[in-house]
Amino acid sequence: MLGKILLTFGIILIAILFLRKHRQDERLRLQKLQGQKRSALPGTGTTTKPPLSDYRFAAYLFLALMFGGGSYLYYLRWQDDTSLVTVILHSDGAASPVTYQVYKNQLETRAFTTVDGIRVTVASSERMEVIGL
To answer: Is 59 in contact with 15 (CB distance < 8 Å)?
Structure first.
């Protein structure tokens, strides 16, 4: 666990150092351009573009993809958790089994809560069969 944390901090530190170096190189390049003529040739219509605009676009695109992907995965998890499963309890003394409808996220090892809100605890002498997982 400690190794993972140290590895994460190391990667963050390397990324910060890389970005600082890159930023210094860009400043030097811009200072050289300011010393020279920055205007484009007449009639060509080309100008120099700020170098960070591409990085900003990529960063915003990455954030949008991360939030979109996270939202989609959260929706899929919620959809799976709210799906209904059928629980059948077979008791030693009963002639026929008892059937319940349960949301998947309400199902535990030896207990569950039905759709109607009834809390059922399974005894050690009963056998629980789950259909729909």
So the answer is: no
Contacts of 23 (CB under 8 A, 6+ apart): none
Identify each DSSP E strand in the chain by its residue range: 84-90, 98-107, 111-114, 119-121, 127-131
- Entry pTM: 0.53
Q: Could you report how far apart the first and last alpha carbons of the chain are, in Å?
A: 33
CB 82 within 8 A of CB 104: yes
Residue 56, Cα to own-chain centre: how many angstroms?
22
Q: How far apart, in whole angstroms, are the C-alpha atoms of residue 101 and residue 85?
A: 6
One-letter amino acid of 14 = I
Span 101-115, mean pLDDT?
92
For the chain, the residue count is 133
pLDDT tens per residue, range 19-49: 888 888 888 888 888 777 555 445 555 555 5
pLDDT single digits (tens) 68-82? 999 999 999 999 999
Q: 86: which strand partners?
A: 101, 131
